[in-house]
């Protein structure tokens, strides 16, 4: 799930063991997406999830920011709890 998060800042990391490019051992990798292990990965993923769910007509519960709901005129609906 965290791989779907969008980074808000530039983050660089050392080349992973086993994937070091010959002749470029001193270069680093610039991340384009969030990865597991980043401190901000959960927040980046939640921000993207929040944007997508809210853009699809769900409402954010004000008492618990991890609960989303969407109901139709007949009262049938969906509740998403993270």
TrEMBL record:
Source organism, top-level taxon: Eukaryota
InterPro entries on file: RVT_2 (IPR013103)
Classification via Pfam families: RVT_2
Domain called Reverse transcriptase Ty1/copia-type: residue spans: 1-81
A GO term for molecular function: RNA-directed DNA polymerase activity
Keyword annotations of the record: Nucleotidyltransferase, RNA-directed DNA polymerase, Transferase
Protein name, entry field: Reverse transcriptase
């Amino acid at each position: 799930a965290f791989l779907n998060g969008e980074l808000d800042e530039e983050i660089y990391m050392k080349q992973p063991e086993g994937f070091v490019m010959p002749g470029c051992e001193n270069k680093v990798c610039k991340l384009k997406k969030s990865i597991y292990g980043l401190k901000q990965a959960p927040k980046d993923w939640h921000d993207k999830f929040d944007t997508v769910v809210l853009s699809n007509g769900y409402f954010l519960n004000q008492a618990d920011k991890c609960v989303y709901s969407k109901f139709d005129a007949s009262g049938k609906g969906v509740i998403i709890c993270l």
